[in-house]
Amino acid sequence: WHITKHQKMRANIGEKEEEFSALETFQEKMKDIVTGTLLLSSIRLGKELGLFESMVRIGPATSTDLAEITGLSKRYIHEWCIQLTANGVIEYNAESDQFFVPLGIDKVLTSEFGIVPMMCCLSENHTPQYKMLKNAFNEDTGIYWGDMVAAAKCANAFFKPVYENMLQTWIESEPTLRQAMSKEGAHIADIGCGFGASTCRLASLSPNARVLGVDFHPESVEKTMELIFSSNLNNASAIVANAGIWAEKNNYAGCFDVICFFDCYHDMPDPESVAHQAFHALKPGGMVFLIEPLSSYGDTTREKLKISSTVPLYSGFNVCFCTPCGKCCMPGKEGLGTTAGTSRYEEIFFQTGFASFKTFGRDSSISPSDQGFRLMLAIK
Q: Rounded to 5 degrees, what are φ and ψ at 261?
């Protein structure tokens, strides 16, 4: 949950220490509020889809067993279980890989009266997407990004300060990446560019390069072009294209020095095809630069739940936004989700043919993990 570099600098040049402490405390409160808002929808899903009732009836069960008993989507139920465990609503036995409702809490979660039903009623007032999400659980389908109410706007509001205040420091912490992005005539692609905050920041940081924003959502690309124009950047542009076919469709074989995925790779329905397109579009020695939500190295439920600083929040985004997006448009395919272990990325990029893969930024003056992120680099 990011405190910007600018804010830290201000604290360092003489502002009262208590003011900076108050800022940190306030941001932690905001983090808790957002985490709780996302949790509210998932508790309502647990009530209305009979998940709590089923868990109490059958006792400890794996997420797969719970999905089969309720007839709901296995992937959604697994992500739902992680979110509710990370937030202390249900519990998890790592030895048996089973989730369960603690004694004493069972009656609260299954009652028709009391605090939980009241919370579910409250959520009806501020979750217009809820009906789509409930249907996705039932039908094992996705939700198109453009149909998620204000999702693109929310993402832009959350991530823009990250790119403006931290991106330069993170790039400079990796010499190979810095050199590739700063050289004369470099070509950089920003896949999943959204409203263009990342594209424009890359273009301003790399004035000798050409930066191409790519997004499958036409309205987002329109916003990107507007921002490029208003920022007077003559080294940036944007196109509408699917990340799984963009390079081959536009004849970009061997054209790019660096391809960026900022907080979007985990949303993409076919991450293997996306990695293949990046490999196809890169020059020899070119690299993929990923910024992703902080999670564990391994991909097991036990390892994910140990990351208590971010998983309670990010698992909520996963249930409500990222998993639906990752199951959209491509039947049989689904995205990694926000809590996917770093080993999954490593596996995908090595299988695609990349020569190396690593995380970086630990020695940066702004620690990625302290801000809730992972920085990853794959080199062709």
A: -130, 105
For residue 205, give both structure tokens. 């940081």
Q: Coil, strand or helix: which one is 235? A: coil
88: amino acid identity, one letter: G
User: Helix, strand, or coil here: 115?
Assistant: helix
Band the pLDDT of 251: cuts 50, 70, 90. very high
Place of tokens 């564990």: 296
- 74-83, 143-152, 233-242, 275-284: range with lowest mean pLDDT: 143-152
Tokens 């900076």, residue? 20
Q: Give yes or no for a contact between 268 and 274, defined as CB atoms under 8 angstroms apart.
A: yes
- Quickly list H helices, the chain: 5-12, 17-48, 51-58, 63-70, 74-86, 106-110, 115-123, 130-139, 151-172, 175-182, 197-205, 218-230, 246-249, 271-281, 301-305, 311-317, 323-326, 342-352
Q: What are phi and psi of 340, to 5 degrees?
A: -60, 140
Q: Is the CB of residue 223 less than 8 Å from the CB of residue 244?
A: no
Using alpha carbons, list the distances in angstroms from residue 372 to 79, 87, 113, 269, 338.
19, 17, 37, 23, 11
306-330 residue pLDDT tens: 999 899 989 998 998 999 999 988 8
Tell whether the model's pLDDT for residue 271 goes beyond 90: yes
What is the per-residue pLDDT across 152-174, written as a single tens digit (0 to 9) for each?
A: 888 888 888 889 999 999 999 99
Query: Considering only CA atoms, which of 80, 170, 78, 110 is closest in space to residue 365?
Result: 170
